[in-house]
Design a protein that fits this description.
alpha/beta, globular, about 35% helix, five-stranded parallel β-sheet
Amino acid sequence: MRLLEAFYESTPRAVGFIERKTEIPSYTFNLYGAPKTGKTWLVLDYLSKIPKRRHLYIDMRDLRIDKKLESSEIDAFIESNEIETVVIDHCDNSFSLPKCKQTIVVSEAPYRKNPLLPLLEVGTLDFEEYIAFEKRHIDPEHSFSYYLRTGSLPNMTGVHESILTLRLHENIRSILPTPGDLTVFKYLSYFQGKPVTAHQLYEILKREHKISKDRIYKTLKGFEERRIISWIPKLNQPKAAKRVLFYDFAIPASLHFEKSLMGQLYTIAASKLLKRYHEIVYTDKIDFFDPATNRAILISPFTDQQSSAAKIPRLIDEIDKYEIMDITILTIVNSFEYMFEKVNIKAVPFYEWMLQD
């Protein structure tokens, strides 16, 4: 009870909080998402709008917790203090939820002990949110160049270039504290935005490390559950290699001296598309395809209209096969539009496209 009193009297403050697109509802739910995406800051800002004596914030990673808190103990404290909202931060599936008017479970993987609990996922900063966080107040084109370098985690905005890699590596060590996970992550990072299978990764890793195939599968599954990675499947080929996406595109890039611009741009585009469309896939020649609308997206950073006009005819077999009527080409700065037979071809700079609804 003494520990609960301490939590009750000293809820942390979300100092300097900047609004996100994620809104906290007034009912019981599970706020989940990958590490360092701002989940704690969101709930602390929400609690700041509730009278102090009506809420309780419990951080299960607080080092002062030297024994397992029992939900019955929390229930008694909630009842005696007439608390209406309780937040259980860094919650895992071993913890039973207390009884309260509103309970907010904050976790990385979805809380599975109560499968009926409504879910709300928090992602990294999209480009529009990044601009709000960025303090340099420059034009969107230059902001996008910073976005590419710093990544999409809230704690990276405004970090000076001289310590950028250092901070990114600090994030990696915090997110992946075990050497085994870090090793798998580093090798997987070579494939950002590219097709890869667990078996291919195993074949590469076993040349230099003593590791089992089961360990690879288990580690990748853990990354998925924590939302650290996700996948883009190949159209109509469920057994084909999927393109791997990292929840923050700058972290894998920081692990190598040679940066993969295509991998970063692919991840950025995928992040936006996965929020908008029900199903996004890739094909042999198309980076993104939406089967519901027959729209295609190509990533070609430095293409111009002349080079595009030479490239598009090579896609004619897939254009006909999938009845594609609209192709968007994402570039760094170029924009143009023309018709190829009955297909509308439109090139848009990345920073512009990222700000479109």
